[in-house]
Amino acid sequence: MELQVNGRKVYAATGGKEFDAKLPTVLFIHGSGLDHRSWALQTRWFAYNGYSVLAPDFPGHSLSEGDALTSIEAQGQWLVDFLDAANVNRVHAVGHSQGFLCALELAKNAAGKVASLSGIGTAAAIPVNPALIETALESSSKAADLMLQWGFGQNAQMGISAVPGMQPIAIGRQIMVSNPLAVDLQACANYESGETVAESLNIPTQLVLAGQDRMTPLKAGKAMAKTMNAEVTVIDNYGHMLPIEAPKRCLQSLRDFIGSIEHSE
Amino acid sequence: MAKSSYLKPDTIALHSGYVPESDHGSRAVPVYQTTSYVFESVSDASSLFNVEQGGHIYSRITNPTVAVLEQRIAALEGGSGAICTASGMSALFTTFITLCSAGDHIVSSAQIYGSTATLLKHTIKRLGIECSFVPINDEKALREAIQDNTKMVFCESIGNPGLEIADIPNIAKVAHEFGIPVVVDATFATPALCRPIEHGADIIVHSVTKWIGGHGVAVGGVIVDGGQLDWSASGRFPELTEPYAPFHGIKFWEEFGPSALAMKIRAESMRDVGATLSPHNAFLILQGIETLSLRMKQHVANAHTMVEWLQAQEEVTWVNHPEMESSPSHHLAPVLFPEGAGSMLCFGVVGGRAGGAAFINALQLASNLANVGDSRTLVLHPGSTTHSRLTPEDMIAAGISEDMIRVSVGIEDIKDIKADFQRGFKAASRIAGEG
Lengths: 265, 435
Ligand SMILES: Cc1ncc(COP(=O)(O)O)c(C=O)c1O
Prior knowledge:
The structure holds two protein chains of two kinds.
Chain A: E1 2-5, E2 8-13, E3 25-29, H1 40-47, E4 52-56, H2 72-85, E5 91-96, H3 98-109, E6 114-120, H4 130-138, H5 140-151, H6 154-157, H7 168-177, H8 181-190, H9 194-200, E7 205-210, H10 218-228, E8 231-235, H11 242-245, H12 247-264
Parallel strand pairs in A: 3-4, 3-5, 5-6, 6-7, 7-8
Antiparallel strand pairs in A: 1-2, 2-4
Helix pairs in contact in A: 1-12, 2-3, 3-9, 4-5, 4-8, 5-7
Chain B: H1 9-15, H2 42-49, H3 64-77, E1 81-85, H4 88-99, E2 105-109, H5 114-123, E3 130-134, H6 139-145, E4 150-156, H7 168-177, E5 182-185, H8 190-193, E6 203-207, E7 221-225, H9 231-234, H10 238-241, H11 252-256, H12 260-272, H13 279-289, H14 292-311, E8 316-320, H15 333-336, E9 344-349, H16 352-362, E10 367-368, E11 378-380, H17 392-397, E12 404-408, H18 414-434
Parallel strand pairs in B: 2-3, 2-4, 4-5, 5-6, 10-11
Antiparallel strand pairs in B: 1-7, 6-7, 8-9, 9-12, 11-12
Helix pairs in contact in B: 1-3, 3-13, 4-12, 16-18
């Protein structure tokens, strides 16, 4: 669906079903340079199984207008504005990589709105090699190539796909090269308060981490899990792009975790 | 530029789409000779049917062995996804009916494979889809042929039978000004010689029956979605951007972006038309694709030698190959086909229609048949076969002459091919001497 946030048109995927604010809402937050399509194999299930789904494209990304937001803090505040625009008071926030940093900021600014946090392929800090940022400033396609080589695990590099016949690297690349990747990477690099914010939150949290993650290493993810007292699922043999590489296992973790919170209330 | 893999092409051809399965460690891609797949549960089944997850339901739509071939070809071409079909013709038909509905229009190169011309001229015309044929490298003619209802520009990377190279970058530039995709039948070149997506093409079709399979044992086709076209910005494809009723109003572009077209073909044509590649044929074609670049190098080397050698033969009246200076599009060869512009060539032989027939009849190594792209050398005399009912004037209009011999140069030892052709020349010159 399309809505206006701070005067700009924003696109949010709703999992193929009309958004219904009466249902428990799951907010999916994409990572650097990506868009709502990285959640294609999670959002539809939630939308057709008793939830409402919002998977926005951040400003300046894919189907959303506007300039890209330059800090994680601004992106977190934007999520607050986005939920206001959608008239949503309570969400289960799911973030991939940078998207989870934004989810932390959302929770910091609007703790009462966040029923649970799920982080996939993430860590409290996402330091980015300055050379990668420089590359991204010069050429988003070169930077995307580097990210995709590090980001996808060995199976995806061998052309394995969860959707028969498709090539996830090509799909990811096509999305990344037309999005403001450099701005996103810079925002990640500059964000230093992840640890502090994570520590301050008292929200049920789970982290789904990848055994072959070269962008947010497993060790860093596990350290944040400790800080947040989070449930941890480790998916071996996959890389940083878990929602695309191992969609079914990500979905299973999200279903179990979010479902357990919904049913305990 | 679309990129699907960071492996090099020769590695992709051997590995992409498959890692040894965990149960038995089968190194070769197994043949999943099955029609259907057991669901984990009723809810699992329902989520597969509703595209909530990827996976296999029924082999008309997807099959694990076929999927390996699809992913491998997508990786070789640099596409976002691929769909295999029962034949090259069904790949073309599927592409045409996915992008066009009754009332729509296609602009096609005039120089295309005969059955594709018939499909465009007659068969899909019955479905209300019109086609204009243009000399594809004539930019003015191309522009003038594009209408408000035009849904694609179609060409072959190396045209049939004149072996003209399509100026893909320029064709793409023009088509994209109108938001129209360029569909390229790249059968004659294979991704080992040319990857049209890198030159601006949007959708690639192959008859994998030919060089990709390479051994003349299985008929098959493939459609590769380049994933580069913004279907929404184009404004011409509501089928991809508006709700699609049979899947709860799914919007392919919004949900899948760069793989929107491939997903639409899967969800609609493979389901409703079902021109499916069999798992066994996919397996056979996979055996061929593993050596694609090795074979193409030898095909091209042999073709280059034959072109030179034929030009020096007394009995040969003319020779055509896309890289020859006499070919009007030869300047495009180094740009689009740096490794060589394929292994198809044509030549004229003394003695006219009868000379051509005598040449073919005298051959003992090369096979006289209606196929191309086998590892073996194949020859055909259109004047006695595919075009035998045409008058000499109609033949010229079709870009064919009575004396024309079409050769798909194989990878045998070049000395043996030459020796065989010498037999043919003797026979043709006998006819010419009589005449
Ligand atoms: C250029 C070209 N395209 C398509 C086809 C059709 O392929 P198939 O025979 O696999 O249906 C052919 C077959 O000869 C061909 O040469």
